[in-house]
Design goal:
The chain is α+β, with helices and mostly antiparallel strands and 449 residues long. It contains 14 helices and 12 strands. Helix 8 packs antiparallel against helix 9 and helix 10 runs parallel beside helix 11. Bound molecules: adenosine-5'-diphosphate.
Length: 449
């Protein structure tokens, strides 16, 4: 702005010299000579030279200056040309590398320009869908039509939500190829919005994970089989250990009794672990079918609490539950609900402080559905551990000190069961003060998640 002002100012101050006023024709001629030079510069041609034979004073300098400027522009144009060539070569290399990487990892990418409605697929995405690269443009309707009918609504809903909220998304879905074969894809994407928050583009990736899923399934089948095989001999060890411990097979001295007790309690722990692994593999293999039926939640909760009474008594812990009699029947899968509550309440007992523990269980109707809470005033979960607490085998250090025999699978199972039944789970906890677990279900109650 300042510079412009200066230029305008300079121009508006006439610099009248003798030469200027004397030979106007000469000036016009010289200026006419400049025209093709400037036209050349404008079109990127810096080679047009100026005749300097009959130049006078001021024009010599001007023409020399323009000549130098042309030379500089020429050099810069050369440099830009070379940089452009290098950049083009690099871009070609990069897109080739990207294409190879996409082909190797069976990962395709797509981009949807919302304003023009154009959807671009990478070559690999075409191959994943069993088509020739770029064989024809794929519209949104056609893309949705290629998704397995059972997964279509979920995919469409997820994309719609991202469109409305601008949040990234991730899902797995099946596609059906023209020959009828199915593939499993893992999709990730995000919505790009403008300054006003209006979606302008959506982009994402789709990876063919069919093989990985098949291997996973084989692994789960194997684990399930091994666990089943282990369970029977372990039960035999426990039963016979119990018989020996009770003295039914003859009296034992204190030392023998001690050994047998160690043996049976180890077998009980192992059976618990095998049962947990079996539960996980059943969920992973999609063998958990949610079969909800109208159930009295209060009765169900009281039944679960009764199973915990002796452990609570031993620890000197109280369990409070005030049934809400206005609830009526709720659509619940009693087995799954029992697994969830027994696990959470069992943990509340285990991680309560001895002789000073109070546990409160509640089941209420809320604005968005039903909410089960299990609250204790126990050791709490340190902040650093809270983000990982639902992961397989994860245990917080303070829990290991209190009870060294946990396996860190209970909460993982609770989360799988909750989500398999269409619910959500979360917690609030303060180390040293206590923990509350929340499990919510929609008004429809439990349903296949
Ligand atoms: P486990 O109790 O066998 O270790 P879980 O999966 O049930 O396995 O729990 C994982 C971890 O979560 C526990 O080791 C403990 O660190 C923490 N935890 C769970 N429930 C509670 C609770 N009520 N109070 C404090 N810590 C808890």
């Amino acid at each position: 702005m300042e510079a412009n002002k200066t230029i305008r100012k300079k121009r508006s101050t006439p610099q009248t010299t003798k030469e200027d006023s004397v030979d106007l024709d000469f000036v016009r001629q010289r200026l006419a000579q400049l025209r093709p030079v400037f036209e050349g510069i404008e079109s990127g041609d810096f080679s047009k030279s100026l005749q300097s034979s009959d130049q006078k004073g001021v024009f010599t300098e001007l023409f020399d200056g323009i000549g130098m400027m042309q030379k500089l522009l020429n050099e810069q144009a050369d440099q830009i040309y070379q940089l452009k060539q290098q950049l083009q070569a690099k871009t070609t290399d990069n897109s080739r590398a990207l294409e190879e990487a996409q082909a190797l990892s069976h990962l395709g990418s797509w981009e949807w320009d919302i304003a023009t409605g154009t959807i671009t697929w990478s070559d690999e995405l075409y191959r994943i869908y069993g088509m020739r690269p770029q064989e024809r443009p794929i519209g949104f309707e056609e893309f949705i039509g290629l998704i397995h009918p059972d997964d279509r609504k979920r995919v469409q809903d997820t994309i719609d939500t991202s469109f409305q909220t601008g949040r990234p998304f991730e899902f797995e879905h099946r596609i059906v190829l023209s020959a009828g074969d199915e593939r499993i894809l893992k999709g990730m994407g995000k919505t790009v919005v403008d300054k006003a928050g209006k979606p302008t583009r959506m982009l994402g990736t789709s990876q063919d994970v069919t093989q990985v899923k098949q291997l996973d399934r084989a692994k789960d089948e194997f684990i399930s089989l091994v666990s089943h095989q282990l369970r029977t001999p372990l039960s035999i060890i426990r039963i016979h250990g119990g018989i020996l411990e009770d003295g039914i097979a003859g009296p034992l001295d204190a030392k023998q009794e001690g050994h047998i007790r160690t043996m049976t309690s180890a077998s009980i722990r192992l059976i618990g672990l095998v049962d947990d692994i079996l539960r996980i593999s059943r969920i992973s293999l999609n063998r958990i079918k949610v079969s909800a039926s109208p159930t009295d939640p209060n009765k169900l909760i009281q039944g679960c609490i009764e199973e915990l009474v002796s452990a609570a008594k031993e620890k000197g812990v109280t369990i409070a539950f005030s049934p809400d009699t206005s609830l009526g029947l709720v659509s619940i899968d009693a087995t799954i609900f029992g697994e969830i509550l027994r696990n959470l309440a069992g943990n509340a007992v285990r991680y309560s402080k001895k002789n000073n523990g109070h546990i409160a269980i509640d089941f209420i109707k809320e604005a968005n559905g039903y909410l089960l809470t299990v609250k204790d005033n126990g050791i709490g979960i340190p902040q650093v551990d809270q983000a990982f607490i639902f992961e397989r085998f994860y245990r917080a250090n303070n829990a290991v000190v209190v009870d060294s025999e946990g396996n860190g699978l209970g909460l993982y199972i609770v989360k799988l069961f909750t989500e398999a039944a269409g619910g959500k789970i979360w917690l609030k906890s303060t180390a040293g003060k206590g923990t509350t677990f929340y499990v919510s279900f929609p008004f429809q109650g439990m349903q296949q998640g």
